[in-house]
Amino acid sequence: MTSRALQSMRVALLHQGAPVPHVGGVIKPMKPGGYSDSSADIAYALKTRGINVITPASHPDVRKDLDWSFPDTPSAIRQAVTEHGVNVFWANTILHSKHAIVELADFLIEKRVKMVGQSPLDTEKYDDKEWLNRWLVQSHEGLQRCFAENQLITAKDVDRLDELNLPAVIKPVRGRGSHGVKVVRDKEQLKRGVEALLKESDAIIYEEFLEGEETTITVMPPGEYTNGRKEGYWALPVVTRFDQVDDVAPWNGTVPVMDNSRALTPEEHAADPAYGIAQRQCELVAEACQATAPIRIDCRRRRRSEGNGGEIILFDVNMKPNATGTGRPGREKQTSLVALAAEAIGWDYPELCVNTLAQAVDLKSLLDRE
């Protein structure tokens, strides 16, 4: 996308204004604040690069998250277009088939609105982590042996928990970050953990425990970037994670990711072919999902003892990765895993945001595709 095209944009950030609907009795928990913190980070970063960012407050306060983004409600979205001339929405929210963007599709398409984000119709499917992993393994060549083994657990399965192998991971089907993720090592922990998660949702995931090195890989969609045109999906440098708590990476609101994660050096990457193989697999995942914005895939080696060359297994596809970043006062440690990866290719947070914005797509093409 040319600088002239960027200059013609009137961009508004959308944060999550209300919980998403249940899907088959399965709930996706709402993040406190509805991603208004990262929406403010993005909007502020874009503004520092001269992008015309439209905000609900005429003079947004750098310390007030909600000054920088609109809630993703039909009234707020319509108001942003009709009263403020917004022609690009950055959907920094949880999308689904009943989302306001889908409800207002005819109006927004008529106004030729573009969007940064995934297709709302696809996201609802891909938010089901058990279904997504199974679909990718069964339907896509090159991914058959890439993912951690898992299965659904519902209330009717409680009586057979003793049959399951331990240690294992239990987690929500439609999870958010590390919410509800727990490594269970004995039958009592498994029973208590399953009972607790089933109070939140009708089904949960039981997954093999991968005890080795944890990494995460961000994949960008094809397009024009400040580092050149990319004809296909392309992975940013691998980020390695450490200092997990009970073998689970803590939520970044508790422990900033810059304190427990870093991008691999080129020398570390070159010394272990498994990293490059995992990047190619993650690019295949993004292609299969037809991602139109960055996605992030979490991975681990199966064994703690596996060093260079030990197989890296994919276990969690994040279609809307955390997008916080530094820049606003008081946000000095609030970088994200995606931003850490981008720094490794020389992009600071504002450049990452501008490059992501440049991939905005017509809403019609997002909703019409097969």
UniProtKB/TrEMBL annotation:
It comes from the Eukaryota. Coiled coil: none annotated. InterPro entries: ATP-grasp, Dala_Dala_lig_C. GO terms for molecular function: ATP binding; D-alanine-D-alanine ligase activity; metal ion binding. Keywords: ATP-binding, Ligase, Nucleotide-binding. Residues 129-358 form the ATP-grasp domain. Pfam families: Dala_Dala_lig_C. Belongs to the D-alanine--D-alanine ligase family. PANTHER family: D-ALANINE--D-ALANINE LIGASE (PTHR23132), D-ALANINE--D-ALANINE LIGASE B (PTHR23132:SF23). This is ATP-grasp domain-containing protein. It comes from Kockovaella imperatae. The lineage of its organism: Eukaryota, Fungi, Dikarya, Basidiomycota, Agaricomycotina.
